């Protein structure tokens, strides 16, 4: 009897859709983390610290361009898919138009990079690496993660992601052994990702009964217009959280860039934690907000408190384990990287502070406030980072990133208080 009683809460816990979303999203990100941890020392030994920095710099440019490819669809589309789960015809048109739009945007992104490299002679130190990295844009365009989120079937896409990263790891081990081969690092990541994504599209068509239609340009244009604010919000947020490496590249040498990028890569991975929380609870939070606001606030408060506790544990653990983390990743004692990582260890906790505000904006469909908050954050980050990096180098950049996380929390709080005071009172009081 007691065994049955103990099993029931656990089974109920696992069946919770928010928990399932978080678990499978965590599996995806955990596999990415694990592969990053394994590949970092392999790449540093294979291509050298300076080429490792340039590969990461190229990846930063591609990830920034992926914001254009995503164009807010990763936030808006899961909701649309969830609403049309049982309507195969509407779902088919939605899926066809989203994939068509993202492929068009990936083509546009590729053209912009080619113009920058071959027409304007930009990115002089890593042009070839960047050109070979373009395949990652099409890997992003065909990634159906948003579809499986809306269908609440995350298991398959999480397994596919792990398989893709394992193929990438195998490619690193077999083919990357000298600095001249650095151009193939991001190419392989995009190649294997694209191949797995195409396999998932085949599954969506034949096993889930989704038909792929010709693109409806009128519907695509309307969806782009609807997602403009989400796109700019994502772009500003990404620049704020990931633009440090690009800013630092104007003030330092490739070797220092490599040591900073090593620490930054760890923090970027850890900073995914609050983002995963928002993505996981958003569908259920939206339903609760519409059906029963009192239950919604109770649910979000519980999530927020637990997020802050876990964020604090991540920060403390990262600070004290920084020397060991850097030694494992680089197989050497890079004291500068350890210092950068210890300073940046505050980022996960500070990022968790804003989980409540972002969730309130999303469930309230406050795209304008989300955009304004992201824009102010971006302006603050660029201004503070450029100033502190100029005077204090990578250490100044670390403190700029920390201060930006704190500033954006208060910016979002003020915006919500001024425009949607009811949400602030319901959640914080």
How much strand?
under 5%
Helix fraction, binned, reads over 70%
End-to-end C-alpha gap = 41 Å
Low-confidence stretches at least 5 residues in length (pLDDT < 50)?
1-14
Number of strands: 0
Tertiary shape: globular
Query: From the alpha-carbon coordinates, what is the Rg to the nearest angstrom?
Result: 22 Å
SSE-based structural type = mainly alpha
The description of the largest β-sheet is: none
Mean pLDDT rating: 86
> Which sequence of SSEs, written as H and E, runs from N to C?
HHHHHHHHHHHHHHHHHHHHH
Count of helical segments? 21
Number of domains: 2
List the helices and strands and how they pair.
Blueprint: H1 2-15, H2 17-47, H3 49-70, H4 73-83, H5 88-119, H6 127-132, H7 135-141, H8 145-151, H9 155-175, H10 183-206, H11 217-226, H12 228-242, H13 244-249, H14 254-270, H15 272-291, H16 293-330, H17 335-344, H18 347-352, H19 355-363, H20 367-419, H21 421-428
Helix pairs in contact: 2-3, 2-9, 2-14, 2-15, 3-5, 3-7, 3-12, 3-14, 4-5, 4-8, 5-7, 5-11, 7-10, 9-10, 12-20, 14-17, 15-16, 15-19, 16-17, 17-20, 19-20, 20-21
């Amino acid at each position: 009897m007691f065994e049955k009683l103990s099993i029931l809460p656990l089974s109920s816990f696992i069946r919770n859709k928010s928990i399932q979303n978080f678990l499978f999203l965590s599996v995806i990100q955990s596999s990415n983390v694990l592969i990053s941890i394994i590949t970092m020392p392999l790449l540093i030994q294979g291509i050298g610290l300076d080429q490792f920095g340039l590969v990461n710099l190229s990846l930063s440019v591609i990830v920034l361009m992926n914001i254009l490819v995503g164009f807010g669809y990763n936030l808006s589309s899961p909701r649309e898919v969830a609403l049309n789960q049982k309507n195969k015809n509407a779902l088919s048109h939605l899926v066809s138009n989203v994939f068509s739009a993202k492929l068009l945007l990936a083509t546009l992104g590729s053209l912009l990079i080619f113009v920058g490299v071959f027409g304007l002679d930009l990115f002089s130190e890593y042009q070839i690496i960047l050109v070979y990295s373009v395949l990652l844009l099409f890997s992003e365009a065909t990634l159906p993660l948003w579809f499986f989120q809306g269908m609440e079937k995350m298991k398959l896409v999480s397994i596919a992601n792990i398989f893709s990263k394992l193929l990438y790891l195998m490619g690193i081990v077999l083919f990357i052994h000298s600095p001249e081969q650095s151009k193939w690092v991001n190419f392989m990541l995009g190649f294997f990702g694209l191949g797995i994504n195409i396999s998932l599209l085949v599954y969506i068509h034949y096993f889930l009964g989704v038909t792929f239609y010709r693109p409806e340009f009128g519907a695509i244009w309307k969806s782009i217009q609807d997602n403009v604010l989400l796109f700019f919000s994502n772009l500003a947020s990404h620049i704020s959280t990931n633009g440090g490496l690009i800013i630092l590249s104007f003030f330092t040498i490739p070797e220092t860039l490599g040591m900073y990028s090593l620490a930054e890569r760890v923090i970027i991975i850890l900073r995914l934690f609050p983002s995963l929380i928002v993505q996981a609870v958003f569908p259920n939070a939206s339903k609760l907000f519409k059906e029963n606001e009192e239950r919604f606030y109770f649910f979000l408060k519980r999530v927020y408190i637990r997020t802050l506790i876990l964020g604090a544990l991540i920060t403390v653990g990262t600070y004290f384990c920084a020397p060991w983390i850097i030694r494992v990743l680089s197989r050497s004692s890079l004291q500068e990287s350890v210092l950068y990582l210890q300073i940046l260890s505050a980022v996960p906790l500070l990022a968790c502070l804003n989980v409540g505000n972002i969730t309130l904006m999303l469930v309230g469909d406050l795209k304008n406030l989300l955009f304004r908050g992201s824009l102010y954050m971006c302006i603050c980050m660029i201004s503070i980072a450029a100033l502190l990096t100029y005077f204090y180098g990578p250490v100044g950049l670390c403190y700029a990133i920390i201060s930006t996380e704190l500033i954006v929390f208060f910016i979002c709080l003020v915006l919500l208080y001024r425009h949607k005071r009811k949400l602030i009172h319901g959640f914080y009081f």
